[in-house]
Prior knowledge:
- The chain contains two helices and no strands.
- The protein is mainly α.
- It has one domain (3-113).
- The radius of gyration is 60 Å and the shape is rod-shaped.
- The model has no long low-confidence stretch (mean pLDDT 87).
- It is found in: Cell membrane; Endomembrane system.
- Pfam families: ATP-synt_B (PF00430).
- This is ATP synthase subunit b.
- Residues 102-133 form a coiled coil.
Amino acid sequence: MNINASLFVQMAVFFFGAWVTMKYIWPPLIRAIEERQKKIDEGLAAADKGEMALAEAQKEGQAIKAEARAQALAIMNDGEKRGQAIVEEAKAQAQVEADRIIEAAKAEVAQEAERLREQLREEVARLAVAGAEQILRREVDTKVHAQMLEQLKAKL
């Protein structure tokens, strides 16, 4: 066989193989590569969106956290104020109760003092009658002197 004929046949087979490859094999490969490239681009875009969403979510989370801290601080301050108000109210109620108890005790002491004065008057009157009886050494009429004792008690 001749080298020229062999070269022409090889060239014809090469061009036929290249034409078949370009017509039937190359287009599906290009489509597959383009689809893959499109998927990669979509994935990158989604990743960028995800990063942006993550950054935004972190900002929102920090804002929510700051707001929650502020609310917690406000609640604590309100609780402290309410606690102080309750303590002040309890102090006021305790003072009112203490004043009431002191007034009741003063009234009771006054009544007791009056009762003791009355007993003391009666005792002084009895002692005066007993002393007068011993001085006079005679029996005293109790009814007559009862009036005198009442008058004496009134003066004392």
